[in-house]
Design brief:
Elements (H helix, E strand, L loop, with lengths): L3 H11 L5 H15 L12 H12 L4 H9 L2 H4 L4 H8 L1 H11 L9 H18 L2 H15 L7 H21 L3 H15 L1 H17 L3 H15 L5 E6 L2 H11 L10 E7 L2 H14 L1 E2 L5 E2 L12 E7 L3 E9 H14 L13 H12 L3 H12 L3 E5 L5 E5 L4 H8 L1 H5 L1 E6 L2 E3 L9 E7 L16 H31 L8 H10 L5 H9 L5 H8 L17 E2 L9 E3 L11 E5 L5 E5 L3 H4 L5 E6 L7 E10 L4 H11 L3 E11 L2 E10 L2 H13 L3 E6 L1
Parallel strand pairs: 2-6, 7-11, 12-16, 13-15
Antiparallel strand pairs: 1-2, 3-5, 4-5, 5-6, 7-8, 9-10, 9-11, 14-15, 14-16, 17-19, 17-20, 18-19
Helix pairs in contact: 1-2, 2-4, 3-4, 3-9, 4-7, 6-7, 7-8, 7-9, 8-17, 8-18, 9-11, 10-11, 11-12, 12-14, 17-18, 17-21, 18-21, 21-23, 22-24
Length: 693
């Protein structure tokens, strides 16, 4: 553990203007507040914040960040308050400590909800000042280094899983690769102990049997570059066990078939030397096609810059080589922190693109599971590059589609997307993008996100935005149904109801506003009698318990699958007499009045519905028996084409000579349209039987 004077000296070495007295006071404060508290290792608890502060000095961060690291657990684990921190160390340190403290455990929540709530608070605090993230990453790294002292294996695995899923990817996102690699390695040891032990043992065996092969390859690379007049540093290493294990899992390979276990780094003085060195290596050694990546001309979102290539050595062995300048190497190791020099005053607006996306996801996510899903999608790094027609570059996960691209450019553009051109050709929106694709988004003024997009989008931002838009539309349409029911309810009251009574009803029902009242009626959260009593207290005293709805409610203008669902059991179409079943917190389920399911008895409120004048468009289901001979299926399809009907689904359900039985879903305008099609089917010699089901 760092002693008090050692910590202060570290800070003074890179920041001679640091307030020595304030740093000393913060050190003493954390020692006093944590007092006799112990860690699982048996060490004094204050050793942890001191070591975290030491990690911050390695990054040469400003004194406010160092003090935050020293004090980050005092509010959570001692009697100290944020007000105490502000009084003793100023508002900036108090704000940073509060940001880290917001990750404190929420014991009353379920495990996934607690993790999501911690992540939500963390991301919001991080958006205000990214130093919160730097302290938290150092805090998690030190906890991982001491994780083996925790006796409970399940707790160790839980912490390791959280580190692997959230903190290691976040470290990568800000370019802190050294933190990321160590976190992954320590988490891997806990999550896959057998695999970790096996790979570590095999690496040790290779190390003992290779006869200094890594050093020999590094020397050959350096000599080849020196012969070309390039002064460089070269060194090699084996890849981390977790990196090897992930490659084995992804490619389904045994350890013996992983060919590029060794990686080499070449450091140059300039960018020009990087490309010159690459040319020398590619002419001296055979390189592996498809394994070259240029992160200097197109850096990663986190600022990472380097050239990557893979070479064949001695015809059979592969070696990955990374070429970069010395400045790039320093930045690549610690990313954002490498830019955060004390001389810049420690200020940062935090408005990098990926962070804005994360905050938008926090706002859009509906529950804990959604938040965790979307955030994990947003922070993982396996990326491709795509361009707008004007040349703007966007990095997206592999498998991203044109819709993901549109949302990456801007949320409003994603919401208005109706089509896309990829490399100048009209392509389906679900088409996966490739590296270097030029994507032009076609938008429509009245377009809106489609629920079906969730079946193919892969980015957290796109999924969160689509779900938020769909939820908003669903709420609006349920509220519209509620407004129509409200009008029908008020007609049964003994007096005319005005805006004043409506406002009072909202207050009596403890609702937010009139829109909330309409939504609650539409979602069956309130019964008719509850609404009547709220509007005119005592109005239901002489009213029969089963008060009848006096007129049907129109569903014209509402969207199937959003404001209401058409029942799968009877597939009603415009022209059918319909009723709606309302259950709390669910959309209205629309049935034909003669549906057999209704005869079985259902636990739901019934609402008399109508399609509204000139409503059109629904899916009818047919049961058709064709004669088993060539051409009958084509004849049936011809009937549909001549009657302007579109087949949505076709399934052969029974093959019994001389007949074939099909069940099919047909997009039709209304009941009359469906009836004409049935008549036409029955009239053709190809059809033995045709019925609606």
């Amino acid at each position: 553990m760092l002693r008090q004077y050692e910590l202060v000296e570290r800070v003074k070495q890179y920041d001679p203007t640091a307030d020595e007295a304030l740093l000393n006071r913060a050190y003493v404060y954390t020692v006093q507040k944590h007092g006799s508290q112990k860690r699982a290792s048996g060490d004094p608890y204050f050793s942890h914040p001191v070591e975290v502060a030491g990690l911050m000095t390695d990054l040469k961060l400003d004194q406010e960040t160092i003090m935050t690291a020293l004090l980050h657990d005092t509010v959570e684990d001692t009697l100290a308050t944020i007000e105490d921190i502000e009084t003793n160390f100023g508002p900036d340190v108090a704000r940073l400590v509060d940001g880290v403290t917001k990750l404190s455990k929420i014991e009353q929540m379920a495990e996934n909800e607690r993790a999501a709530e911690n992540l939500r608070k963390f991301l919001l605090a991080m958006s205000e000042d990214l130093r919160v993230l730097l302290v938290k990453l150092a805090d998690r790294l030190h906890n991982m280094r001491t994780l083996h002292h925790i006796k409970n294996p399940e707790k160790r695995r839980r912490i390791a899983r959280e580190t692997m899923d959230i903190y290691a990817p976040l470290a990568e996102r800000v370019g802190m690769y050294e933190y990321m690699r160590e976190m992954e390695l320590l988490a891997f040891e806990q999550l896959e102990p057998e695999a970790y032990a096996t790979i570590t043992r095999r690496l040790e065996q290779l190390r003992q049997s290779d006869g200094g092969q890594v050093d020999r390859i590094a020397l050959d690379i350096k000599q080849a570059l020196a012969a070309a007049g390039l002064e460089v540093e070269v060194w090699g290493r084996e890849k981390h066990p977790y990196s090897i294990w992930r490659k084995m899992a992804e490619r389904h390979l045994p350890f013996e078939q992983v060919t590029d276990i060794m990686a080499f780094r070449v450091l140059t003085d300039s960018v020009e030397d990087c490309y010159a060195a690459l040319g020398v290596l590619h002419t001296t050694f055979q390189f592996v096609p498809g394994r070259f990546k240029d992160y200097i001309s197109t850096p990663k979102n986190n600022g990472y810059r380097s050239l990557h290539t893979t070479l064949f050595y001695d015809k059979s062995m592969r070696a990955e080589v990374q070429l970069r300048t010395r400045e790039m190497h320093r930045t690549n190791g610690f990313g954002l922190a490498a830019h955060w020099a004390y001389k810049q005053g420690g200020k940062h607006d935090g408005q990098v693109a990926w962070l804005r996306d994360l905050i938008e996801i926090v706002d859009a996510s509906h529950d804990a599971e959604e938040l965790l899903e979307h955030t994990k999608l947003a922070i993982y790094q396996d990326r491709i590059f795509a361009f707008t027609p004007k040349g703007a570059l966007f990095q997206l996960p592999k498998g991203a589609t044109a819709v993901d691209f549109a949302f990456a450019v801007h949320t409003d553009l994603g919401a208005q997307t109706v089509g896309a051109k990829i490399n100048g050709r009209h392509m389906p929106l679900r088409t996966p993008l490739g590296n270097g694709d030029v994507v032009e988004i076609i938008k429509g003024k009245n377009a809106e996100p489609q629920l079906s997009w969730l079946g193919f989008v892969v980015t957290g931002k796109a999924r969160a935005s689509i779900r938020r838009a769909v939820r908003a539309k669903e709420r609006a349409e349920i509220a519209e149904i509620g407004a129509k029911l409200y009008d029908e309810i008020t007609e049964r009251l003994p007096a005319k109801v005005g805006k004043k009574a409506m406002k009072q009803a909202v207050e009596r029902l403890n609702l937010i506003d009139v829109d909330d009242l309409m939504f609650s009626i539409g979602a069956a959260k309130l019964s008719d009698r509850e609404v009547m009593e709220a509007l005119i207290p005592g109005s239901t005293a002489d009213m029969p318990e089963e008060a009848q709805q006096e007129r049907a409610i129109s569903i014209k203008g509402l969207t199937p699958g959003v404001g209401f669902d058409l029942a799968d059991c009877c597939h009603p179409v415009p022209g059918d007499r319909i009723v709606g079943l309302r259950r709390p917190h669910e959309t209205v389920e629309v049935h034909a009045i003669d549906c057999l399911e209704l005869a079985n008895g259902v636990d739901a409120d019934w609402v008399d519905l109508s399609w509204g004048e000139r409503s059109s468009g629904a899916v009818g289901r047919l049961h058709v028996v064709l004669y088993n001979r060539p051409g009958t299926l084509a004849e049936m399809a011809g009937v549909f084409a001549r009657n302007n009907a579109n087949v949505m689904h076709l399934e052969l359900t029974q093959r019994d000579d001389p007949f074939h039985t099909y069940v099919l879903d047909l997009e039709v305008q209304d009941l009359a349209h469906l009836t004409r099609i049935l008549s036409a089917l029955r009239a053709t010699d190809a059809v033995a039987q045709a019925e609606r089901i």
